Amino acid sequence: MPLPRILAIVLAGGQGSRLKDLTATRVKPALPVGGSYRLVDVALSNLAHSHISDVWIVEQYLPHSLNDHLAQGRPWDLDRMHGGLQVLHPFEGGPGEGFAQGNSDSLWRQRERIGAFDPELVLVLSADHLYLCDFLSVVETHTRMAAELTMVTTRTDTDPGTHAVVQSTDGWVTGFDYKPDEPDGDTVAAEIFLFDTATLLAAFDALLADRERLGDYGEDLIPWFVARGKVAEHPLDSYWMDLGTLQTYWTAHMQLLDGDGAVLDDPQWPIYTAQPQLLPARIEDGAEVADSLVSAGSTIAGTVRHSVIGPGAVVEAGAEVVDSVVLDGTRIGSGVTLVQCIVDIGAEVSRGGQRGTNSSITLIGADGKVATRDELDPASALPSSFRRSG
Asked: What's the predicted TM-score (pTM) here?
């Protein structure tokens, strides 16, 4: 059966305020992940492996922090004469005027472009999550069920109320509660939605008939589809993590180290990126490195245990890094000890002493100072807070 005409829209404009200073100067999809990648690489690599080549990226917050990395789509084979990657820049206008106030609003602003492109299906993704997914399997579910919308779901053993909670029967979504106070179950939406295009465009008209503007699709667009009774469920049977908080960002990296997190090095499904070419990491005489990921261009002269070290980072002799995520171009000075820290890009941490504890996640800002501490929820500390479904 021929593949239907699919348009993928990647929503990459959110501010990511729950990550605090980590997203003060960059949009969340531009955050480093696993030392060698950016978070947006995950969605784009999944699309590349799924042979979906018409991809639009919707930007809003600090778009310059993402644009250089996108490199016109080259790393994902999306720099094409026909189709390929298009970056849709933010603009004012629409219901209520001003910039978009939610992901439904962001989609609505592209309705005329969507109609002119004339796809059969619209695949809408967030660029905030760490997962692997063959989107063609979602298309197969959508076609087999003759659905108007197919929603990818996953399960969580933390508070489902921080997500959209989903109930289903025989493969059909029967309930959808957006960030409920009292969640009914532990199945949540993975923010991967495959829409029938004609019904999506009709939804915009219907929703705006009785309101001034749209907001988040958990508040308006998805409930409208669920009420029509033709929303299919596609359970994700592998790892999924929303990197929306300091704790989940840190936890996802610790899971990478422990082997129960995302799989980023599958030779059949690699994650592609546009990172600069650097010399291999240098491990100097006297350094101690164990159970860690050490990125290209970094220099280790001190002690690194169970940590992720980003490209170009330096850990000086006499420094100790434990259970931490050290981002690109940082320098950890002699006499400094880091415990359960996230160190922002370009920070220089000096003057000795310990930063961080075993009971909290400590963010060290780009100025080298402690920016914030989040008390660690024991329920979502290691092992995984988000488990493999199934």
From this structure: 0.90
Residue 36 backbone dihedrals phi, psi, to 5 degrees: -105, -5
CA distance 312 to 303: 16
Closest CA to 348 of 308, 388, 315, 384: 315
Phi and psi, residue 169, nearest 5°:
-140, 125
Q: What angle do CA 41, 47, 48 make, to 5 degrees?
A: 85
115-150 burial: b if 16+ Cβ within 10 Å, else e:
eebebebbbbbbbbbbbbbebeebbebbbebebbbb
Residue 262 contacts by C-beta under 8 Å, 6 or more apart in sequence?
34, 42, 130, 131, 132, 239, 241, 252, 255, 256
Nearest to 125 by CA among 35, 29, 249, 204: 29
195-214 pLDDT per residue, tens: 999 999 999 999 988 877 78
Look at phi and psi of residue 45 and say left if phi exceeds 0, alpha if psi is from -120 to 50, else beta: alpha
Cis? peptide before 383, omega within 30° of 0: yes
Q: How much is the average pLDDT of 349-364?
A: 95
98 pLDDT more than 60: no
**Residue 227 CB partners (closer than 8 Å, separation 6+):** none
Amino acid found at 90:
P
Q: Is 78 a residue whose pLDDT tops 90?
A: no
